[in-house]
Amino acid sequence: MIKPSILTVTLNPAIDTVYRLEYLKIGRSTRTKSPLKTAGGKGLNVTRVLSILGESVTATGFLGGSNGNFIRKELSNLGVRDEFVQIAGETRQCLAFNDSRNNQTEILEEGPFISGLEQEELRHRLRILIPEAQILIVSGSLPLGVSNSLYQWMIKEAKNHGVKVLLDTSGEALAESLSYGPYLIKPNREELEGLLGRPCREEIEIWKSMEKIAENGIEIVIVSDGERGSFVYYKGERMKVATAEIRAVSPVGSGDSFIAGFAAGLSKGYSVKDTLILASACGSANAMEERTGYINLQNLNTLIEQISINSTWSGSL
Questions:
Q1: Terminal C-alpha separation, the chain
Q2: Which of 48, 74, 206, 277 suits 242 as a labelling partner, its CA being 20 to 30 A distant?
Q3: What is the C-alpha separation between 290 and 211, in angstroms, rounded?
Q4: Which pairing describes strands 85-86 and 81-82: parallel, antiparallel, or unpaired?
Q5: What CA–CA distance (Å, rounded) separates 37 from 17?
């Protein structure tokens, strides 16, 4: 039996709404045309890009209310298998106000409380879905009522079935999951410094920290550093991935698009370097778009030619 390639988990999804304004008038009325609404949350951004890349994707997590119905319709339009658990609460909304000076002001709802019964229903589904998958992508924040132990349980369950886990979260959820040894983690530089509790002022400090983290049995540690590209530590090898030169519209969702590109390369059996090139190109392609978690395949093919990787060192620090 051939496994469906990729399973994504989004525990705290949202409808992302972008308002384009001349400027935001605090305390006054502001008019805008055609707000842009998308199914959001990090895991759903990943899901959308994977769908654009032609991958077979199953998506799960928690959805509720009319906002949840909107997201289910989006998944249906993408051709994604919807395995979300229906909850009593209302899925959140996140609002972004983009003005003509390239300022972005965001209002992020906290989201619904997830009951113990709803969490158990998700575990039940995952016990069925994880063995069917090749790759499990766990992305984003935890909703109210859900502890870090759910992420840890997912990692253990996936590893028991030989499924590679790409974990893209931050803070305590990331820190407390490292010892469970996901296949990949991808903090940005600020999130890495948060894990360490100190700044990394020199590049060597980043590499040493990545090697230490990899000792948890994490095969690939990636630290993204914005326009400067990414640091990659893989089986004792240090690689730096340069980004393509683009005219950025919005960087929001580029990290999610990177993860989607990495998962697609992994699913297709690409080499690690070709996988990283695809991932970086997806991140850059997303930054060229106003929509979050979206890429234009025509742009992607051009960007792939521009990405370079330098292997700077092999061995043990």
A1: 42
A2: 48
A3: 36
A4: unpaired
A5: 4
pLDDT per residue rounded down to tens, the chain (317 residues): 455 589 999 999 999 998 888 888 888 888 888 888 999 999 999 999 999 999 999 999 999 999 999 999 999 999 999 999 999 999 999 998 888 887 888 899 999 999 999 999 999 999 999 999 999 999 999 999 999 999 999 999 999 999 999 999 999 999 999 999 999 999 999 999 999 999 998 899 999 999 999 999 999 999 998 778 899 999 989 999 988 888 888 888 899 999 999 999 999 999 999 999 999 999 999 999 988 899 999 999 999 999 989 886 544 33
CA atoms within 13 Å, Cβ hemisphere of 304: 16
Looking at the chain, list the stretches that DSSP marks H as alpha helix, in order from N- to C-terminal side: 42-52, 65-78, 116-129, 149-160, 171-175, 189-196, 203-214, 254-268, 272-287, 297-304
Residue 269 makes CB contacts below 8 A (sequence gap 6+) with: none
pTM: 0.93
Whether the Cβ atoms of residue 119 and residue 150 lie closer than 8 Å to each other:
yes
Report yes or no: 307 and 244 within 8 Å, Cβ to Cβ.
yes
Q: Which of the following is catalytic: 16, 168, 225, 256?
A: 256
Annotation says 256 is catalytic: yes
Q: What is the DSSP letter of 237?
A: E
The identity of residue 305, as a single letter, is E
Residue 138 is encoded by which pair of tokens?
Answer: 């766990």
Q: What is the number of other CB atoms lying within 10 angstroms of the CB of residue 311?
A: 12
Tokens for 169, please give them: 């979260």
Q: Across the strands, what pairs with 234? A: 220, 237
